[in-house]
Recover the amino acids of this structure.
């Protein structure tokens, strides 16, 4: 619902001419800027933790977050904000990354928490959550996609660069949806801890995937997928 035609009332007439000034009103609603979305998977964390608060980053995970933060800073971009999942491992990853990007505001959201976005096709034997999880998590993760992945607002004058620190399932689902691929294929993508996925959303709504799960900036012995 962000295409210009969806943003205007086609029945509304100009008071001066009595005719609809469609072209002028469409121009007023058109996006002018490009959005750059950087989706960061959290770093390695303690898998033995029973509750979320116990699933903190491992020493290696903290190293990974430092490397990711250094890589993002080295790009020389003016990042607008960091939006992160409210889960512990994503919050800790964000705190480390943000040290390399001073002044960039951080926003926590439950929408980006890990979950089961949609039943994968083909199914896998090693991961079978209860059906209710797909209904609960799927609706939330779809809401995250619609809320965060869209063309720039018409009022936005300059290109923006935004970081989202969240989870593998969420990122994989978002990538499939953004590229208009069948979302049931999300589990076929693989993402390393601390990896960077770069989506570009043009003013006309077209989406391009610049990088998927990039960890080329990490030494091989620091790369994990847990």
């Amino acid at each position: 619902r962000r295409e210009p035609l969806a943003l205007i009332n086609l029945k509304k007439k100009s008071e001066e001419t009595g005719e609809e000034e469609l072209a002028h009103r469409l121009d007023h609603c058109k996006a002018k800027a490009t959005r750059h979305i950087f989706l960061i998977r959290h770093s390695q964390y303690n898998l033995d933790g029973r509750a979320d608060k116990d699933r903190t980053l491992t020493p290696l995970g903290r190293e990974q977050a430092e490397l990711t933060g250094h890589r993002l800073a080295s790009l020389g971009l003016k990042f607008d904000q960091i939006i992160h999942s409210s889960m512990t491992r994503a919050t800790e990853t964000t705190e480390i990354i943000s040290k390399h990007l001073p002044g960039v505001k951080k926003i926590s959201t439950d929408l980006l928490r890990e979950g089961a976005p949609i039943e994968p096709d083909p199914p896998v034997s090693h991961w079978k959550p209860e059906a209710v999880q797909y209904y609960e998590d799927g609706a939330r993760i779809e809401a995250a996609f619609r809320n965060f992945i869209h063309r720039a607002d018409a009022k936005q004058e300059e290109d923006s660069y935004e970081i989202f620190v969240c989870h593998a399932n969420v990122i994989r689902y978002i990538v499939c949806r953004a590229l208009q691929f069948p979302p049931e294929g999300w589990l076929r993508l693989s993402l390393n801890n601390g990896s960077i996925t770069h989506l570009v959303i043009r003013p006309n709504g077209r989406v391009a995937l610049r990088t998927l799960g990039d960890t080329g900036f990490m030494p091989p012995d620091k790369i994990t997928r847990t």
